[in-house]
Design brief:
Layout lengths: L2 H47 L5
Length: 54
């Protein structure tokens, strides 16, 4: 095989992996923001209601 063809294939695979990781990290960021918002709401509810669970 030609060395240029091998380099092109390697670059294409690396770009595909990086693109997939970028999409996965973007999805995980949204999940983290949603979970964080739920935790903040639960914390504020506990503070406002005065529930002192140990």
């Amino acid at each position: 095989m030609n060395i240029a063809l091998i380099i092109i294939i390697v670059v294409a695979v690396v770009l595909a992996i990086v693109g997939g990781l970028n999409a996965a990290f973007s999805w995980l960021l949204w999940v983290a923001l949603i979970v964080g918002a739920i935790a903040l709401i639960a914390f504020l509810f506990r503070v406002i209601s005065g529930n002192r669970a140990a």
